[in-house]
Amino acid sequence: MARRPPPPEAPAVDRDRILEVALALAEEKGFDQLRLSEVAERAGVPLREVAALFPDTDAIANAWFARALDAVWSTPPELLADPDPAVRLEAVMLRWFEALAPHRTLTGTMIRAKLWPSHPHHWVPMIFALSRLVHAFLDVARVPGRGAERAAQEIGGTFLTLETLAVFLADPSPGLERTRAVLRRSLEGGVAVLRRVGPLLSRIG
Length: 205
What we know:
Blueprint: H1 15-29, H2 36-43, H3 47-53, H4 57-73, H5 85-100, H6 104-114, H7 123-140, H8 147-168, H9 177-204
Helix pairs in contact: 1-2, 2-3, 4-5, 7-8, 8-9
C-alpha cells in the first residue's frame, strides 16, 4: 500500500509582520485596547501562533524596543568615523531615537503602561533594559573609559538618555530637531565635566 506523502509544512509566521500589524492596530485603537485576537485576525494567522511569539501586549512593546536597540547595534561604520567620542555617541544615540520615531507617541504610551502601579513586575526589567541600552550606546560609540571613569560615563549616559527621551516623547518637530538640540547640548555639558574629572577618576579606577 502506497504511503501518503506528509502534509506540507505550514509557512513560518513572520514575526516582524505580526509586530507591524500589532503596531498599526495599537495606533488605531490605543495600546491599552490592543488584543492579540485582533492582531491574529488582521494578520490572517492562528491566534496560538501569535501568542507563541507575543504572549501579551508587553511582549509586543518589548519587541518594538528590541528593534530600536538592534538599530543601535547596526550603526553604519561611516557614522562612527569621527575621532571625537562625543560625536560618535551622539550619532549612536540618535539611531535609537530615529528608530522609535515612526511610533513616537505610541512609544510613550508603552513606557507609561510599564510604569503603571499595577505593573510592578515590569519595573525591574525596565531598569536592566535601560542599563543594557546605555552600555550599548557606549560600546557601539567606542567611548574609552574604565573603572570609576566608566562608571561615571554609565551614570551620565543614563541621565542623558532619560533627559533626551523626555524631550523626544513630546517632540513633534520635523526631523526631531528639538531632540537633537537637547542631546547635543547635554552631551557637550557632560563631556566638559568628564574632561575635568576624568583624570582623577582614572586614577581612582
